[in-house]
Design brief:
342 residues, alpha/beta, 8-stranded mixed beta sheet, two-stranded antiparallel ribbon
Amino acid sequence: MGLGFEVVARVAGRARGARATLLTARRLRRSLLALLITAAVVIPLSAAARPRIPAPAPAVLRPLTASTLDEAYAANRANAAAASRTAAAHGDHARAAADRALAEPSRTLLAFDGRGSGLATEVFGDLAHADRIAVLVPGSDTSLDTYPRFRATATALYGQLTRHAPKGSRPTVIAWLGYETPRTISTTALTTARADQAGPRLGELIRRLHVIAGPEARVSLLCHSYGSVVCARAASTGPGVGDIAFVGSPGTGVDSAAALRTSARVWAARGADDWIAEVPYVRTELFGTTLGFGTDPVSPAYGARVFAAGDGGHSDYYTPGSVSLANLARIVLGDTSEVTRA
C-alpha cells in the first residue's frame, strides 16, 4: 500500500492527537474510517486509470518440474523480450525498459505476463534443490512498472538468508507478483476482492513449489501490507506452509490467527514509524460492500507471534541491517528461538 493511504493516515493521526481530549475512542475510529472511505471512493473519480499495456500472451510452458525449470526460465525471458519490443512500439518506453531488464540472461522467471499492469514470478537461488523457500507477497501499487522496488526486497532477503543459513542449507526466495495489486487510493484497496482472486493463485504456486523442490521443502509466506489479505486467503493450502509472517498489515480479513485454519506458525510485526498503525482495524458495511480487514495482527486479540521490526516505516521491513530483515530471515530458516519479540 502506498503514498495515498500514507497521507490519509498521517492526517488522521494528527487529528487524533489534537482532539484526543475531546473525542472518545469510538468516535475517533469512526472519523478515521470516514477519511479512508472518502479517499477510496472520491479521489479515484479524478484519477484516470493507466491504459492497458499491449504485450504478447504468456509463454506456453510444460508442467513445471525440477527438470523443466531452465526451459521455463528461457521461455519467460524470451516472452519478456517480446513484451519489451511491443511496449516500445506502443510508445511506452518505461515499460519497455522494465520488460527488457526482466529479459536479461541472468533473470530466472518462473512466470511472466507483460499485459496490463503485468505479472512476474522471479526466483533467487537454486529452486530445484531448495530446502527453505520464502515467498514474498507484495501489497498495493506493485506492478511491472514498480517491480525493481519489490525485487530489491527479495534480493535483500536472499542475501540475509545466504549469509546466515547453516552449512548445507539451501534457501531460495520467490518474488511473487502473481496478482493485479490494487491501487492504494481505490475501493479495491479496502476490500478483499483482489485477494479473493489472488489467494487460489498463491495456493497453486505453493503446490508447484513442492513439485519442483520436493515435499520436504519448507515454505514461508512473507506478506506485506495488502499482501497480508492475499496470504490469509491462501493460508489453509496445506501442511507445506511452515510459517506465515504479516508485516505492515492493514488486517487480514479474519479476526484471529486461529481463523486462518492453518498449521503454519503465524507471525506479525509493525515498524514504529509505519503509518499503517493509523488505519482503523475494523470492518464495516457500506452500500452492501464490506470495507476494512478487521483485527490488527499485532494485537493480542489476533493471537500471532509478534516480533520486533525496529523503528522503520511502511517500506522498510527489508532494509539491509534492519531488525525486521534479521527476524524475517530467522523465521524462514527456522531459527525461531532467535527471533526477537516485540
